[in-house]
Amino acid sequence: MIKAVLVINTQGKPRLTKFYDILVLIDPIAYENFLPFSSQRRQTVEKQQELLRSVFGVLCSRADNVSNFVEADSIFGPDSRLVYKHYATLYFAIVFDSSENELAMLDLIQVFVETLDKCFRNVSELDMVFNYSKLHNILDGIIFGGQVMETSSAEIIRAVEEISKLEAASNSISLVPKTVSGWRSR
Amino acid sequence: MNPFSSGTRLRDMIRAIRACKTAADERAVVRKECAAIRTSMNENDQDYRHRNLAKLMFIHMLGYPTHFGQMECLKLIASAGFPEKRIGYLGLMLLLDERQEVLMLVTNSLKQDLNHSNQYIVGLALCALGNICSAEMARDLAPEVERLLQFRDPNVRKKAALCSIRIIKKVPDLSENFINPAAALLKEKHHGVLITGIQLCTDLCKVSPEALEFLRKKHTDGLVKTLKGAVNSPYTPEYDIAGIADPFLHIRLLKLLRVLGQGDADASDAMNDILAQVATKTESKKNAGNAILYECVETIMSIEDNGGLRVLAINILGRFLSNRDNNIRYVALNMLMKAITVDAQAVQRHRATILECVKDSDASIQKRALELVYVLVNDTNVKPLTKELIDYLEVSDQEFKGYLTAKICSIVEKFSPEKIWYIDQMLRVLNEAGSFVSDEVWHALIVVISSASDLHGYTVRALYKAFQTSSEQEMSFQSTSKKKTHQESLVRIAVWCIGEYGDMLVNNVGMLDIEDPITVTESDTVDVVKIAIKHHALDLTTKAMALVALLKLSSRFPSCSERIKDIIVQHKGSFVLELQQRSLEFNSIIEKHQNIRSALVERMPILDKATFSTRRAGSLPAAVSTSSGASLDLPNGVAKPSAAPLVDLLDLSDDLPAPSSSGGDFLQDLLGVDLSPAPTQSGLGQIQKADTDVLLDLLSSGTPIQSSSPTTEILLPSQNDKSPIATLDARSSSSSLSEQATSSARAAPMMDLLDGFGPSPLKPEDNGSVYPSLVAFESSSLRITFNFSKQPGNPQTTLIQATFTNLTPNVFTDLIFQAAVPKFLQLHLDPASSNILPASGNGSITQNLRVTNSQHGKKSLLMRMRMSYKIDNKDMLEEGQINNFPQDLGS
Questions:
Q1: What is the pTM of this model?
Q2: B325 CA to chain A: closest CA distance, Å?
Q3: Distance (Å) from the C-alpha of residue A14 to the closest C-alpha of chain B?
Q4: CA dist., res. B379 & res. B362, Å (int)
Q5: CATH superfamily of this structure's domain B771-889
Q6: CB within 8 Å: A41 and B119
Q7: What is the pLDDT of residues B125-143, one digit of tens each?
Q8: From B378's CA, which of A104, B100, B451, B666 has a CA 20 to 30 Å away?
Q9: Which residues of chain B does A163 touch, with a Cβ-Cβ cutoff of 8 Å?
Q10: Per residue in B625-674, pLDDT tens?
Q11: Does domain A2-175 have CATH number 3.30.450.60?
């Protein structure tokens, strides 16, 4: 299972964070002792930043000529591996457990980046910053609840474009979304 | 109506945040935005709800708390429009998680949307459920998801399949309902649905044995056929990754086959052919192709045994190891680590390639490979492997050296076939990476050196040479102003060995055939230690060890004694208390106590490996030092204070069968008493104190005891001077002062104290026998006296010289001496000097006996004897028993 997808720029700023395994984010002790949710929540936010910092610390200290795999047990808990790729100003990282094929995860990053590239026509970091929700649409088209769903970039783009069309349609004629969707689902 | 038309737009907010120069600025902008969003939410502003949430998600990513937006998500999800629902669900996935109570409220909306007529809205709901589903939601919504597995649109079907995985993981009981619909997905033609269906089946097999059994029986053949189709299918550009057709489908299929084949011979059999085909046919030039091969190898290693396939698989990994791509080498090493439990022999075949990976430029590969090599070492290959590793040590990176050194030391210690090899390898390691050798390792090395008595000369010469080379190198590095770390551990070992076996260095004692003789003068030897002590970079422990070595050398090389004294005296003013004190004490030993010096600085007794190991493991043996006199058991085996290195070193001796434990303690007191930490065990303090007194008494002139009789007299090992020695002994055995009375009975232990180490090889005549001789037998006709001595380093064995004296006016002929000992003793009799004993004490016969006490320290010696001889051809027979052997011989 994939535990998280992280995109961080070379300055350490997060550009996309998605966690599929909540246990990565919470303090298991607080969770098991049923501490108030508010305090767990605060921990979650802090923990997320801490994880990003540690991941960035590891990634930026790695030389270019080394493998793309990092033992991530110390950061994400037992049975965690991290695969990353460095494109221009961005690090793309996937955290996963031993049930996934490391080399395939590397390919998955490739699929993700290729899809972004096709969607934005030569994707840049700025595209990702300002098209935050579209980015999530693409990611949701590839990975679903921690499982790989689709690996064909054409399929992914088709799904994303359909969603964009629906949004645009209902934005321009916001009073008739039902008709549109009713028509589409026929 | 456009939600992006008024207020700050999302875009503007992002720009504002990006424009921030400092983290404080950013926090201010975010705080302002959050305040605005809260206000807008409180006003229940429907138009901005969408945009507010979009902003919140961005803020969330930056790491600010956003929980106040959760209710807004629910409101958006409940609204009718697609964009609102979409952003609502997106927010739900990011801002909420399965633990939050709010989630209870969303179940109903989800249920409605799963039944929505718009398939995109159904898709959104499935996606959200797949990400945040809790156990309660799984129970409530499982029927909807199950139904959606048969939905007409494939995009919904594949989402439903993945959502089902989440549901059965949360509530395994529900898996029963999913088995049939999931199995139906395996016959799908649609690629996405097929791949997700396979995933669902894999997870079903993991949580439900029934599902596993069912799928294994009914679908193994079908899956094999599907994989065959995928392997042989014409090229489909749609699912191509870098030129390899559809690696993900291959990988998923191989994973499911692995689950089905594991533990089932029939199923494994069914997939053999296709696995062989994948293993041989897959293109291995690209990452994607290797991903398939890698998965295939794992499946082959996991399913039921098929020798041929396994060899194929391990050969693939072997090929991976020589791949230029770091990632491939890395996964190959990972997989070999797993494979070693399945087929160690096959992995051994790739040892050479693995060894090459230890020299990789990628540190993570180096580390992996080294771990693998470590597992591969066995008795047969330890020598070549160690040689390779040590050779590499010379050229490896500084960062890797520490790790590599630790592994090599561990291998050498674990598998060393013989002592000389162990010593050789460790010397090489010390040479190359002395600064990375841990204390435990060099302590262990000293134990080994000490126990290899035939190698003492060899070792000390090798160390001498190594030290010379090392300091020459350093000189040359200094001149080129390059940084070079001094091989600290090498210096320590060298100094220790020179101190102990310095005489063997000079006299080329115990030459091995492989050695070239070297000429080292006594003065050269002292030079080496002097270099060590003068070196500014060396630490306190090393310097302290060097001082001890000097003291020892002063006795081994009397001609250099003056020079050594000068070197020692230089540290009299050292700012380090430790060195200052040693300097003063040692100086005083050299100057004033010539007579006991050689005994004090005698060679350390052989160190016992077993005791050292237990010590190292952190458990202090309960009764390590057995003694008749003082028992000083320093508690430093547990928590070693760094300032007490010498105690540490000497301490090794006091839990071993020393020639005489009181002697061992005394030596320790003398050399290390003030290094000992404050007593941590109650009760010991008293004893330590008493021992310190002894030392002070010994070394300071002017104390009442010593002023009462001249120092020389005290320390003369003559039997006439029993009283002062007894005083010392009484003190050292921590008895009360009243016992200082001149009791001659107490003299024995002290005698032993001074002689327990045996005569020094250089001037054995200085000491003589200090054990009192014993009249072993006396009758009207025959007297037998025993003189005792011991060999240094071998306290268990007592050498006895028996002297026979004839008390009658008749000559004894055919004298035969027989002796018997209990089982715990071993007796060896040398031939007697003669079997004719002249009359009236006009001559004597001597005979040497050697008694080894296996219970040394626990039981004392005991002997029965029988003497037969003839007087005028008349047989005579006498018998006797000795149970009054001197106490300190072995009890």
A1: 0.64
A2: 8
A3: 7
A4: 29
A5: Gamma-adaptin ear (GAE) domain (2.60.40.1230)
A6: no
A7: 999 999 888 888 899 999 9
A8: B451
A9: 86, 120
A10: 333 333 333 333 333 333 333 334 444 333 433 343 343 344 343 343 33
A11: yes
